[in-house]
Predict the structure.
Amino acid sequence: MSQIDAGKLRVERRPLQLRPLLESVLHSFESRLEGRTVNLELAGPEPHMLADAELLSLALRQLIDNALKYSPPGTPLDITFQSTPGRAILRLHDHGAGIPERDWERVFDKYYRRESARRLVPGTGLGLYIAREIARAHGQDLWIESAGPGGTQFCLSLPLENS
């Protein structure tokens, strides 16, 4: 947090592939994933990325933790990954109550927690802020897209090695 707040987050970019990194992060949530299906779909050949594996792992942990806290036990997590020109996009869709569109930007504010969540879900309101700042330190971003009926879809853009 202190590095983020000071604008001095050090990004050590190295070539990496998302699948092994994502599988490692998911493994760290193994006990919390019991009873849930994780649907992982990579569209086309997996591109090579140029990113800081430790920071990207932290951002992914924040997103997965958020999805687990705000969706009912037993509901699936859908993770898709696709290449676009110049970047790749990971989409994580949970099947919780969803976030009203009016709050889509506010959930990324430091310490912001929706009123209904404060009473029901433990947390500090830093996870999504940290994940977005990590994406931005890589020259990318994190945002919400409509997930259709129920749930929330977080979209994380990631830098490709040859962009």
Observations:
- The chain is about 30% helix and 25% strand.
- Helices lie at 2-5, 18-28, 53-69, 115-120, 127-137.
